[in-house]
From TrEMBL:
Record's keyword annotation contains ATP-binding: yes
UniProt cross-references to InterPro entries, sorted A to Z: AAA+_ATPase, ABC_transporter-like_ATP-bd, ABC_transporter-like_CS, P-loop_NTPase
Gene3D superfamilies: P-loop containing nucleotide triphosphate hydrolases
ABC transporter domain mapped to chain residues: 8-237
Family: Belongs to the ABC transporter superfamily.
Alphabetized UniProt keyword annotations: ATP-binding, Nucleotide-binding, Transport
UniProt KW Ion transport keyword: no
Record protein name field: ABC-2 type transport system ATP-binding protein
GO molecular function, one term: ATP binding
Pfam families: ABC_tran
């Protein structure tokens, strides 16, 4: 494995909190310029892993390498290359956005010029509010200022823990656009922890899935999205008996509490399903389907844990 191809490498991390082992021999690596979702049920160890990656807590054993630098042996050199927002951005509400940026710039070991501060303000689209006090900011604006602070020192790796919490749909879309721009234009590698599978599907290239502190799998989100045989469609139709007879001629079906489930259906086939039912003069009341990343996630984790969808 070439470290320069993988700016973040996690090797055999273990961590016990109290009497419970939270992380078990966890290993994964991230390719440069890609956006990774970090998925797992509540209590699976995502935040603990992130805290170890950014050196907020120490692992019992194992190692994290950032641009080839060991977080335990070369901490300062490693942290030069990483930015992070763990939970909520740490902001000074009584200061303006610009004053916050300058404060954090002054704390950096290497000088950060005003030109770089102005650049990140433009990147996160805060020019209109950067001289206003942060206490007047919306939650989405605070998130964007937090990202601006985390990328001030031009990190090659950015870690975000639940970045869309509390954002409205427009704020989520704006944040997605900013993160994808970072990855595509600046080759920043992102690890985004989230419970929102639909957002991960729109944002990410790949997803790292853990359960009970262990790696379950790493999957390509784009591949999953293109797999035509990964969908389960549920149709509310009446009368059900006749609908089953019609559908079973072409598709695998069964009754569920929500209606008739049709398995292994391509997205492009949904109009054909509806047409077949309409041709039989049956009443179709609703059509729904599971997102394909959601299908993959639950097939890997057996649906365990309290995932918030």
């Amino acid at each position: 494995m070439k470290m320069n191809e993988h700016p973040l490498v996690v090797e055999k991390l273990n961590k016990t909190l109290g009497k419970k082992q939270i992380i078990h021999d966890l290993s994964f690596s991230l390719e440069r310029g890609k956006i990774y979702g970090f998925l797992g049920p509540n209590g699976s160890g995502k935040t603990t892993t992130i805290r170890m990656i950014v050196s907020l807590i120490k692992p019992d054993s194992g190692e994290v390498f950032i641009e080839g630098n060991s977080i335990s042996k070369n901490r300062e050199q490693a942290l030069e290359h990483i930015g992070a927002i763990v939970e909520n951005p740490d902001l000074y509400l009584y200061l303006t956005g610009m004053q916050n940026l300058k404060h954090f710039a002054d704390m950096n070991p290497r000088p950060i010029e005003q030109a770089r501060i102005d650049e990140v303000v433009r990147l996160v689209d805060l020019e209109h509010a950067i001289h206003k006090k942060v206490k007047s900011y919306s939650l989405g604006m605070k998130q964007r200022l937090g990202i601006a602070i985390s990328i001030l020192h031009s990190p090659s790796v950015l870690i975000l823990d639940e970045p869309t919490n509390g954002l409205d749909p427009q704020g989520i879309r704006d944040l997605r656009d900013y993160l994808q721009k970072l990855a595509q234009e600046d080759e920043v590698t992102l690890l985004v922890s989230s419970h929102q599978l639909s957002e991960i599907e729109l944002l990410c290239d790949r997803a790292v899935i853990i359960q009970e502190g262990k790696l379950v799998d790493e999957v390509s989100v784009k591949t999953i999205a293109n797999e035509a045989d990964k969908m389960t469609v549920t149709i509310e139709v009446s009368p059900q008996e006749q609908a089953l007879e019609v559908l079973q001629q072409e598709w695998k079906t069964n009754l569920s509490g929500d209606g008739i489930e049709i398995h292994e259906v391509a997205y492009q086939e949904i109009p054909q399903v509806i047409h077949a039912l309409s041709q039989a003069q049956l009443a179709v009341y609703s059509v729904s389907y599971k997102k394909r990343l959601e299908d993959a996630y639950f097939s890997l984790t057996d649906g365990k844990g309290g995932l918030n969808l």
